[in-house]
């Protein structure tokens, strides 16, 4: 049998096979481009998820900074002295003198120390005073503390207390 006779007899089958092969080639190309697009979308999704995590962490840190700013709201030495005086008065301590010692500026904060001379009846009062300062919403630091016998059975206290505030 001759090749032309074979082609004549099977021309429809050969045409169908050719169309099928062409369709397979086109569909493979389409699949490859779609697969590449899917991979690009997966990488973009992963990148966006990482960005979202970073933004979530930044938002959390921003909230924490705002909480600290609200907590560290005392803005002047006068407010520091008033706060210490109020705590001492509520506990029955007698303040002999209270004076600011000048501000010290750091990069992001300002430290405002205050010198306090006071009298207490007993160690229990001293402990309550320190506990109240420690648990106060403002951030108090006792820089120095000395205690000596006072008048009668009382105690004389000499302390330096600082407050930290956020610099503007």
| CATH architecture level-2 label of the largest domain | 2-Layer Sandwich
**How many alpha or pi helices?**
4
Per CATH, what is the topology of the largest domain? Alpha-Beta Plaits
Strand content: 25-35%
CATH class annotation of the largest domain:
Alpha Beta
**CATH homologous superfamily identity of the largest domain:** Ribosomal protein S6/Translation elongation factor EF1B
Explain briefly what this protein structure is.
This protein has 168 residues and is an alpha+beta fold. Helices cover 57% and strands 26% of the residues. The chain has 2 domains: 68 residues; 90 residues, Alpha-Beta Plaits, CATH 3.30.70.60.
Sequence-ordered SSE layout with sheet pairings:
Blueprint: H1 3-9, H2 11-71, H3 77-91, E1 94-100, E2 104-105, E3 109-120, H4 123-135, E4 140-149, E5 155-166
Antiparallel strand pairs: 1-3, 2-3, 3-5, 4-5
Give an overview of the whole structure.
It is a single chain. The longest helix has 61 residues, at 11-71. Strands 1, 2, 3, 4 and 5 form a 5-stranded antiparallel β-sheet that branches. This protein has helices at 3-9, 11-71, 77-91, 123-135, and strands at 94-100, 104-105, 109-120, 140-149, 155-166. It folds into 2 domains: 3-70; 77-166, Alpha-Beta Plaits, CATH 3.30.70. It is rod-shaped. Helix 3 (77-91) crosses helix 4 (123-135). Helices cover 57% and strands 26% of the residues. It is an alpha+beta fold.
């Amino acid at each position: 049998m001759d090749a032309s006779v074979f082609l004549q007899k099977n021309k429809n089958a050969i045409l169908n096979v050719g169309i099928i092969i062409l369709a397979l080639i086109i569909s493979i190309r389409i699949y490859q481009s779609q697969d590449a697009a899917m991979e690009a979308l997966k990488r973009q999704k992963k990148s966006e998820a990482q960005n979202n995590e970073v933004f979530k962490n930044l938002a959390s840190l921003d909230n924490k900074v705002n909480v600290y700013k609200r907590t560290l709201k005392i803005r002047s030495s006068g407010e520091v002295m008033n706060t210490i005086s109020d705590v001492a008065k509520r506990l029955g301590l007698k303040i002999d003198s209270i004076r600011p010692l000048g501000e010290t500026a750091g990069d992001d904060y300002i430290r405002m120390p205050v010198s306090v001379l006071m009298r207490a009846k007993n160690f229990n009062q001293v402990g309550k005073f320190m506990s109240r300062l420690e648990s106060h919403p403002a951030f108090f630091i006792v820089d120095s503390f000395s205690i000596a016998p006072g008048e009668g059975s009382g105690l004389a206290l000499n302390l330096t207390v600082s407050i930290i505030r956020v610099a503007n």
